[in-house]
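User: Can you recover a sequence for this backbone? Please restate the input before giving your answer.

Assistant: Of course. Working from this structure:
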């Protein structure tokens, strides 16, 4: 699907379900954030329902045949022709290579090509790298956080 340096970015497959959940929960715990399989993270366990059936996408990032990250979006009933970028997580060993910025740009391109006009992102202040990434790429702080572990929300107009 996409390649960045020696990373492969591809569509999620059913065989990725448990490993993707494990990677995401480990990154959350790294920052002291809770894994919430009944709430904020139920989408990770039901990719078909939350992403594939709604017109979203869920991507897997691989490095040397290992799952090292995820990135996704799905349409939301907020704003106009809007999506929310979700589950953009990278394991510590693959941070600092520009992969996050590349992923964000590819997500934005895919979203724009599908005719969406707004991108929303919820995050937590403790995820300082994510906050810096969004703010330096044109995401504007707004209000209306809906996820309990998040305290920041951003919007970008395409």
């Amino acid at each position: 699907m996409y390649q960045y340096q020696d990373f492969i970015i591809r569509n999620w497959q059913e065989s990725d379900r448990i490993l993707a959940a494990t990677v995401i929960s480990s990154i959350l715990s790294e920052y002291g954030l809770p894994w919430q399989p009944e709430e904020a993270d139920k989408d990770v366990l039901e990719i078909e329902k939350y992403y594939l059936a709604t017109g979203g996408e869920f991507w897997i990032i691989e490095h040397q045949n290992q799952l090292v990250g995820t990135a996704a979006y799905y349409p939301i009933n907020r704003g106009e022709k809007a999506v929310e970028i979700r589950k953009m997580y990278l394991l510590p060993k693959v941070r600092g290579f520009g992969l996050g910025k590349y992923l964000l740009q590819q997500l934005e391109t895919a979203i724009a090509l599908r005719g969406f006009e707004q991108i929303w992102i919820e995050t937590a202040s403790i995820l300082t790298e994510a906050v810096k990434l969004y703010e330096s790429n044109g995401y504007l702080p707004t209000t209306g956080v809906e996820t309990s572990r998040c305290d920041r929300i951003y919007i970008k107009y395409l």
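That completes the design. Strands lie at 2-4, 7-11, 57-63, 66-76, 82-90, 118-123, 140-141, 152-157.
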